[in-house]
Design goal:
This protein has 283 residues and is an alpha/beta fold. Helix content is 41%, strand content 17%. The protein has 12 helices and 8 strands. The protein has an 8-stranded mixed sheet, with helices on both faces. Helix 3 links the parallel strand 5 and strand 6. Helix 2 packs across helix 3 and helix 6 packs antiparallel against helix 7. The longest helix is centred in the middle third of the chain and has 16 residues. It is globular.
Length: 283
């Protein structure tokens, strides 16, 4: 899955980010992937966006793909990663961009939209809602969240590797690139590197803080926000993204992609591209 040509390597705070920088349009779209992907997740969107006249920036997050794998967990906190992305924009002399983000990339995206709103023209969040909606608790919701409890433990990479990746294949059973991802993930150190983002932002501790009323009051997002969720998502439920509208003070739009799973940008690229381009052309 890592055969896509990388056109740049940019050093941020001593760590190298690998990224694609394609197209030459004045309007720029930044694409952020999540677990367990890299920038190649967006291959169908990159071509459509470039052909539509946009410049596209598509990095591998720290610990993923061809970007560096620093050891210190503080490099992987959501606030640190969001700041890295802003530094990356500064390095590329980009003042404002359209941000499109999926999975953990979307978690970082919400942080950017909240803290660095002046750097975004619009924000498209795929699959993931506002943090305040992710910590709602019920038995039905907990059945989605087991993986976030597992992935922070040191034994998780060993479990995923055992029996030639049997558990990882089951978890990724709906991923169109499953076999390529498993093949890469079985290499030494890959799963441990990807795990650091989750260890630096452990969901159980966030849930505990929520239950103890220790989380800060959510800030409103002023950036025009477009949320997309798919009806066969095995990892995230609809309410957590649909109800995020109450934390968006700016323009809000929500669309549901039918007959697609968590990686709907790969399963239904034409539908995804139509939604993206329609949104971007209006802004």
């Amino acid at each position: 899955m890592y055969e896509t040509l990388r056109t740049k390597t940019i050093e941020i705070k001593g760590d190298r980010y690998s990224l694609q920088d394609l197209g030459s349009g004045q309007e720029c779209v930044l694409l952020l992937h999540g677990w367990p992907d890299d920038s190649n997740l967006w291959r169908n969107q990159v071509s459509a966006l470039v052909n539509a006249g946009y410049r596209v920036i598509c990095p591998d997050l720290l610990g993923y793909g061809l970007s560096d794998q620093p050891q210190h967990l503080q490099r992987y906190t959501i606030s640190a990663l969001a700041n890295d992305i802003i530094s990356l924009l500064d390095n590329l002399n980009l003042n404002k961009v359209h941000l499109v983000a999926h999975d953990y990339g979307a978690v970082i995206g919400w942080e950017i939209a909240t803290v660095y709103s002046t750097r975004l023209k619009t924000f498209v969040t795929m699959s993931v809602g506002h943090l305040a909606c992710l910590v709602d608790l019920s038995f039905d919701i907990l059945r989605y969240e087991w993986i976030y409890f597992l992935n922070i433990h040191k034994i998780a990479p060993q479990l995923y590797r055992a029996s030639n990746g049997r558990l990882l294949r089951e978890v990724l059973r709906t991923h169109p690139d499953r076999e390529k991802i498993v093949e890469f993930a079985l290499k030494p150190g890959v799963l441990e590197a990807m795990q650091k983002l989750e260890q630096a932002n452990p969901l159980p501790e966030i849930l505990l803080a929520f239950l103890q009323d220790k989380l800060p009051e959510p800030q409103q997002v002023s950036v025009p926000t477009f949320a997309i969720w798919s009806d066969q998502d095995d990892f995230l439920w609809e309410a957590q993204i649909k109800e995020s509208s109450k934390y968006v003070a700016g323009e809000w739009r929500y669309e549901r992609v039918e007959e697609a799973g968590h990686w709907f940008m790969l399963e239904q690229p034409e539908k995804t591209n139509h939604l993206l381009l329609d949104w971007l052309h209006k802004h």
